[in-house]
Amino acid sequence: MPEPYISVVIPVYNEEENLPELLGRLKASLQAIGKPFEVILVNDGSRDRSLEILREAAGRDPHLVVVDFNRNYGQHAAVFAGFEASRGEIIVTLDADLQNPPEEIAKLVAKMEEGYDVVGSIRVQRQDSLFRRMASRLINRVTSMATGVQLHDYGCMLRAYRRGVVKTLCASKEISTFIPVLADMFAGRVTEIPVAHAERLRGESKYSFFKLIRLQFDLMTSFSLLPLRATMTVGVLTAILSMAVAVVLIAGRLIMGRDWAVSGVFTLFAALFFFMGVLLFGIGLLGEYVGRIYMEVRKRPRYVVRQVIGREPEAKP
Ligand code: UDP
Ligand code: MG
Fold it and tell me: For the chain, how many structural domains are there in total?
């Protein structure tokens, strides 16, 4: 096998229904490009027959490499493992559920050859529920505000990276990272191209509403201090506001006498609850950052690879 020029990295989590078609279409479209390639499939602890299908396919096709995790670590950890194993000059990431058509890889590669470091993609006619589309819209806006990285579509994993960018990504050993944003921080020339997007035909989305919220919170706190600063601003504003309210209360007391506003009971309650809310929010937010520091200092590995199928173990020098 010649050294691959294109490495395709695909996270796989319970995708047994999609794998046969994915592998077929991938092979056809990569062979059409006509450059040496490899496909790295990372089995993220699937509980269905995904691993067997992958193992069998890797036995037949020397282009396939399967990295098998010992349990589920999440999509981004899987992509990182794929990055570590990749050897190509251009690395393309893709979802296993065929929502990103493999036929679009040629477009990404062509764009990379114009000299870009990262080529993202924008899903035209996105085939997801209205709710998911709206949520993504909001997330994209907030993310570009908080991180200062201007991208249109963070959620789309059909993206191409140059070897150097991937090396830097692998070197940044943060625990929770969002690959598209991280990559764009390191890359010199970044562009985006429109790609087609298909409906998920088989299997179901691996992201529940709660998981999406979690991901977004991760994204915000791991790339910016905006939430901390925003809390501080809220704190300062409330302090100013409460002073104004105090002035009104004192004036009311002097003018209207001691029975004003049920002797001040309600006002007191309102102010109290408000501050309690602000305080709790601030503490929670601080906790998030402290927890993050705790995770980082432990320096635990991001994932554990059980086996690598389809590649000779590297000869030790
Ligand atoms: N995935 C994964 N680990 C997970 C969740 C998802 O490897 O814990 C993979 C999944 O197999 C798919 C990709 O990540 O290849 C995107 O997942 P999905 O299609 O469910 O996300 P959505 O398209 O709904 O955003
Ligand atoms: Mg999907």
Answer: 2
CB 147 near ligand 1, within 6 Å: no
Write out the two tokens for 164: 């150097």
Name residues whose C-beta falls within 8 Å of residue 159's C-beta, 6 or more positions apart in sequence.
92, 93, 108, 118, 119, 120, 121, 180, 183
Same structural domain, 239 and 216: no
114 in the same domain as 49:
yes
Q: What is the pLDDT of residue 111?
A: 93
pLDDT digits (tens, 9 = 90+) for 55-74: 999 999 999 999 999 999 98
- Strands (DSSP E) contained in 109-182 are 118-123, 159-162
Residue pLDDT, tens place only, 153-212: 767 889 999 999 999 998 887 766 778 888 888 888 888 888 888 888 888 888 778 887
Test site for ligand 1: of 54, 92, 95, most ligand atoms within 8 A of the Cβ: 95
- Tell me the percentage of the chain whose pLDDT exceeds 90: 40
203 and 271 together in one domain: no
Same domain, 150 and 235: no
Half-sphere exposure of 18 (CA within 13 A, CB side): 24
Say yes or no: 207 and 272 in one domain.
Answer: no
Same domain for 144 and 15, yes or no, is yes
Q: What is the mean pLDDT of residues 116-140?
A: 81
Give the closest residue (by CA) to ligand 1 atom 19: 205
CA of 229 to the centre of ligand 2 (A): 34
Q: Is the dihedral of CA 48, 51, 52, 56 positive or negative?
A: positive
Place of tokens 């191409």: 160
Domain housing 91: 6-224+302-309
pLDDT computed for residue 262 by the predictor: 64
Q: Quote the pTM value.
A: 0.78
